[in-house]
Fold this sequence. Notes:
The complex is a heterodimer of chains A (446) and B (247). With 446 residues, chain A is an alpha+beta fold. Chain A has helices spanning 11-63, 66-76, 101-109, 154-189, 206-253, 258-283, 296-309, 328-346, 393-396, 401-411, and strands spanning 81-85, 92-93, 117-121, 127-133, 139-144, 292-295, 313-317, 323-326, 348-355, 361-366, 415-420, 426-432. Chain A folds into three domains: 11-144, 2-Layer Sandwich (Beta-Lactamase); 234-280; 289-432, Histidine kinase-like ATPase, C-terminal domain (Heat Shock Protein 90). In chain A, a hairpin with a 5-residue loop joins strand 11 and strand 12. Residues 440-446 of chain A have low confidence and may be disordered. With 247 residues, chain B is of the alpha/beta class. In chain B, helix 4 (90-98) links the parallel strand 4 (81-85) and strand 5 (103-106). Chains A and B meet through helix 5, helix 6, strand 6 and helix 7 of A and helix 1, strand 9 and helix 6 of B.
Amino acid sequence: xxxxxxxxxxxxxxxxxxxxxxxxxxxxxxxxxxxxxxxxxxxxxxxxxxxxxxxxxxxxxxxxxxxxxxxxxxxxxxxxxxxxxxxxxxxxxxxxxxxxxxxxxxxxxxxxxxxxxxxxxxxxxxxxxxxxxxxxxxxxxxxxxxxxxxxxxxxxxxxxxxxxxxxxxxxxxxxxxxxxxxxxxxxxxxxxxxxxxxxxxxxxxxxxxxxxxxxxxxxxxxxxxxxxxxxxxxxxxxxxxxxxxxxxxxxxxxxxxxxxxxxxxxxxxxxxxxxxxxxxxxxxxxxxxxxxxxxxxxxxxxxxxxxxxxxxxxxxxxxxxxxxxxxxxxxxxxxxxxxxxxxxxxxxxxxxxxxxxxxxxxxxxxxxxxxxxxxxxxxxxxxxxxxxxxxxxxxxxxxxxxxxxxxxxxxxxxxxxxxxxxxxxxxxxxxxxxxxxxxxxxxxxx
Amino acid sequence: xxxxxxxxxxxxxxxxxxxxxxxxxxxxxxxxxxxxxxxxxxxxxxxxxxxxxxxxxxxxxxxxxxxxxxxxxxxxxxxxxxxxxxxxxxxxxxxxxxxxxxxxxxxxxxxxxxxxxxxxxxxxxxxxxxxxxxxxxxxxxxxxxxxxxxxxxxxxxxxxxxxxxxxxxxxxxxxxxxxxxxxxxxxxxxxxxxxxxxxxxxxxxxxxxxxxxxxxxxxxxxxxxxxxxxxxxxxxxxxxxxxxxxx
Lengths: 446, 247
């Protein structure tokens, strides 16, 4: 099958097309039918009037004394035909297949009593004449100028109005059908099980309200599942802490040996895993920490100095003199994870701040470590993902550090991006909402 | 061994943990008493003097936070408290410190770390004659155009903007605020600033002072807050006000 026009892609266009086409067709059909009916009945009425009138008029003219006939002609005249005494104009004899309806009527009435000839006159507008002789021998010509009944001027207007109503009704119907769908799609799109989203309005037509209720129920179920998962993780890890504490304490009573050291590092590893698991579960929960306005420089310096004070090689470059509004604990944890990651793989880390063209703020943690294979870049932010090369937990960690950082960045209204650096190493960039202001300055106390 | 042996009371509902901790501390020269809950703790405190209380937060009945607040309100307000918490969470730390704990340790912990913290807290309390500890109970301290939030451990400027402090900077500032308008020698400062990361703190006092001055927007050549006293040390030159709540 060949398609002349592509089938429209949007539901709105399809519905509009179907509705509008079918309504137009139905409306057109009924309009045509009505017009045809009216035309027919009007025509038959007109013809019967015509027959009656022409019969009577010819009879009157026949009875009148020849001298009075001319005086009556104007009284018998009608808009589409009139009478002339005389042979009339010369024309072509009418052929049978071009006979108008009125010719038949004349033939049927006047023609029954007088011999009538018909001639078409080639004038503009074209008309025809019927010639006959009255009973006293005087020639009579009936000049007929058939004309179509003029269309009422309001009819096209009415048609236009109807069309307008059709289009408006279609638009309304399509909108009514599409709007809730669009709203639902938007709600599904913005659905985030980690953060409580506002429920969809359960109003409108039955089907829409039903769909909204179903969606809200689903949203609630997802939230419940997520919450249960978090609670489970928290509960398990909490209950694990007591036995781990006991074990660690017991190990400390053991005599120094290689076994003791191994046991100790195993326990430390379990403890780390439990801690990170809880941290990850928590990072998906909505935070109760309030956002505060703070100096970005002091914040980053305090973070970096804490590393320096414990002998870690962390560098901070460039002062930004920015004030930001953020949640310091979450941001600290996020940056700590990134810096720890850099220290683990590269032994050093560099922190720098950039203001992006859109006004947003980017805090970058850079290292010169081995980086991440390009194909794995998208995966390193997923929970429990570890690079194959670092499966060994001595370097690989729990696979949660970056996942936690990514979650925290999202909870701060930002985004965590990881990329390989030119010349080797990794760049972890936290993009945060635009800073509050560009300047600060507190006058020294005096 | 010292003539006086420090007496530590360990309050934890887990029998094994409190016995293991008790044994370890005893092995390291401390006197220990064990209590399973708040009832036993109160009963013992009524009869004897202790130098430090190790208090678990998560306990059935009265939990550690309730007990800590009770201690701080009663006649044992001077006894240092070290909290054990199962949650490595900033809010827990803040609540614990707000309730008046002197330090906290996250479970699972190493016994030797607990011992180090106990010794640090004991040393800190010894170093400070009681009348000098002005900032102990205040959540907010005011000086000059600054305020220090002692639970969140950051500075607030006049506009209420937060200026973060590193761990060492905070400890140093706290020492100054606890001893305002009093000359402190480098040695004293070093001793007092050594917190729980005693072995990790190896930056020189002078460097820390210059960082702190920078934080306070103090001009190094004509400092207003922390003044240098030639060949003696440093003095914090502003009076310190205890503010109840952040404004």
